[in-house]
Each structure stands twice: as C-alpha cells, then as structure tokens.
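FYI - complex with pyridoxal-5'-phosphate, inputs then prediction.
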Amino acid sequence: MAETWANGLDLHLDLTGTRVRVKLESELREAVRTGRLRPETRLPSSRTLAADLGIARNTVAEVYSQLVAEGWLAARTGSGTVVASPPEISRAAPPRERAADSRAGHEPVISPPRYDLHTGVPDLSMFPRREWLAAARRALTAAPDHRLGYGDPRGLAELRTVLADYLARVRGVRADPGLIVICTGFKHGLDVVCRALRATGCDTVAMEEYGHRLHKKIVAGQGLSIRLLPVDGSGAVLSAAGHGADGAGAMLLTPAHQFPLGVALSPARRRALAARDGIVIEDDYDGEFRYDRQPVGAVQALAPDRVIYAGTASKSLAPGVHLGWLVVPPRLLDPVLAGLSGTPSAVDQLTLASFITSGDYDRHIRRARLIYRRRRDKLVTAMAGLGLRVSGIAAGLQANLEFDHKEVEYFVTERAAHHGVAVSGLDEFTAEGASDRRAGLVVGYGSPPEHAYTAALARLTAVLASLPAQHRPAQH
Ligand SMILES: Cc1ncc(COP(=O)(O)O)c(C=O)c1O
C-alpha cells in the first residue's frame, strides 16, 4: 500500500494483515530506524493519516503516542508530531536490546530511559569543541600538502612525537615515536595486535573474566583461544594464565583500573607480571582519571620489550574522535604493521597533535577529572545514605555496587529502566564460563551531561531505596 501524505511526504506503508495498529507501529518504527523518515520530519495529523490509510483516527493517535513514549517520535507544541532527533532515537532502541540480550526472561522494559547511567561513553557534552576547532585550524594551516597523502603506516610523525612525550610524562610509558602506531581506537588496536600475535605463533590469550564481550569476540575472531583469568581484590589472578609451554602466550589486562570491577592490579602482581614471559596487552583506557592520588604508572615501563601499551581518546575526549595508539615492543613492530588494517584521518591526527601541544588536552583532562570526581563523590554519598558501599578505586568513569544475589541485580536494572534510568548489571560484562558470577551494578556516572546527572542519581537512589524487602541489597 503506497500512500501520499498531505504534507508532501511519500512513504510506503504496508498495513496488510489483521493487526493494523501493531503493523502501523512497526512500519513507522522501521521507517525512522532506517532513516526513511528523517529527524524533525513532520508527520501528518492523526486525522489525515487515518483518512489516507482508511483506518480509525484513534488507532493512529495511539500509535503516535506509543512511539513518542518510546522516543522514536516527538510531540512538538504548535507543529504536531515529528520524527525525534538522533539523541532521542539512539536512546529508544538499546534498552530493549540490552534487556533481551542479557536479562532475557525478566520483566520487559516499557519506557526508554531518560537518564543514561550506562558505562562506555564520557560526558559528550563536555567535548571541547572550540579548542578542537582551533587545533584543526592551526593544524591544517601549518601542514604541508604532502601531509595529506597516504603517509607513514604508523601514523603521522607529528602525533607520534607528541604522544611519546605525553605518555612518558603522564603515564610513565617508555615511548619511542618510532614504536608508536596510531589506530582508530582500542578495538582496532586489539584486532591488529591479535593478528600480529597469531602471525608470530601465539595461539592463546589470557583475558580477565570481567570485561567487554566485544573484546573477547575480537580476540576469538582472529583465531586465538581465550583463557579466563579470575579477578579478585588485587586485580587479575595472573597464575591462571599458566606457565611455560602450557601458559597463554599473551595476556590482555586493564592494570590501572580493572574494567568493570574497578580494582587496580596490586604492586606484587605488577612485579609478577613484569617477571613473567609472554606478551602483555595493557589496556589503559582511563589512565588519566584517578581521583584520590597520582595514578599508578603504566606496567609497560617495567617491561617495554614485552608489553604493548594501548591508549585511546574514547574516554578522555569522545569515542567519535576515533583515535587510539599502541606503543609496541621493537620485535612486534613489523608484525603489527603487516596486520594493520587502515589508519585514521591525517587531518584528525594533526588536530590531536596540535590539541595536545597547545596544552588544551591537559586542560580538558583536568577539568573533566574534577567533574567526574565530584560525580563519583555524590554517588558515594548517596549510596552511603542507603547503607551501600561503592567498590573499586576512586578512578575512571564508572563505579560498582555489589549485591549478594543475581536476583537483586536483575530486579534493580529492570526497576531502574522502568523509572527511566539505564544502568548495567555486571552480567553484561561477565564472560561465559567465568569462575564466579558476581552480582552488582556498573554505574556509568561519566555518561550523562552535567545538568542531568543529579536527577539521574536521584532516580537511581530512589529505586534502590524503594526495593521490596526481599530484593533490598544486603549492606556491605
Ligand atoms: C575496558 C575498555 N577498554 C577500551 C575502551 C576504549 O575502546 P575504543 O578505543 O575502541 O573506543 C573502553 C571504552 O569503552 C573500555 O571500557
């Protein structure tokens, strides 16, 4: 059934079948999701669309209001119903998917979250647009034409040189610009490193049981076996990687701030790691964000001939910058370059180099650190008021609440979703086959814009305070 809408918009809507309301709802959702209906497009009035489609006006009105509630459409005073703009839409789908993915069988999410406490992204509203634009202008003005050619596969020398200084100064990394490889972020770097490991005869990578499933997928995708490392109060249990010929050839760790449990690798284990054979991939995803003391330096400095240091701009700036960096031991440089799949934009690399050189990167990190630190303090205070303790070191953009039972985790995440708060349970970050299945929440206090954080925290606190007795978290 092809329809011409009154406002000049053509849209094919297939409403064949008996469940017209359900059909119209899913057709419109699909049209928005795929971009056939663009953000801010005005939809016809319910009366007009009902007449066009030959269905009851109420049906259309109900469909519109359901899709408004889900975040696909928006009701605008004076201009009727429009297609919601991307931030609203991006929040419309994931909760259902996440719920289906990790909490199948539990209460479905009925409204999209208004408050995003998922971990993963920093506060994107803090992105230093003005300074970044100024850096881009400086970089492009100064760059000779040949800089815009294909260039060095390791990345532009300007950025590698600046990063070598920065990483040595801030993270204690022993970095030679010639051994730095620029990539589009940690995931890209990991993929490239895994290819190099495979090419050099490594077949097993030891990984923390708690972490991103996607990282495990990337490792497995390169044909490497995964050996799981339990995580305790001192960080990853390194002995589980095995020794000698039986040992995993490489380990992927988050030593400065275990993701997502939030512990730091203990000094004894750092020493053990440095003394051990085999390659280590050090994922230093949020190394600049420590709030209670100076951050511990990178493990890489203890064994630069065996540790691949991996950094990213995804937490310090924004994932959309798509820039990351590897500091590679000399013997792995050629295999890494041989497996390199694409390099990031030269313009972006030059911009980041200029951004760091000007001091704007340091200034941005200092400002962000202060803001995240205050947010974490507020979380700790609010939870203390409920008798709950936030676990993990004072660092990064997320913190943990531990529960005694998985049921509490499921109940809290679902209940929170019903109250418009998106927050992850530990389940999302627990590997299949993990030696334990801890219960808890990973609260991404870094995600919401500053103006929304207080309300998001208040909502989460209210959810935790109002749990029925059987679901109330035990006090830690
Ligand atoms: C543990 C961990 N490592 C690395 C990253 C950064 O990944 P990427 O640089 O691919 O965005 C993240 C960001 O979410 C993370 O949580």
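Residues 120, 185-187, 212, 254, 259, 283, 285, 312, 314-315, 319, 324 surround pyridoxal-5'-phosphate (CB under 6 Å). The chain is about 40% helix and 15% strand.
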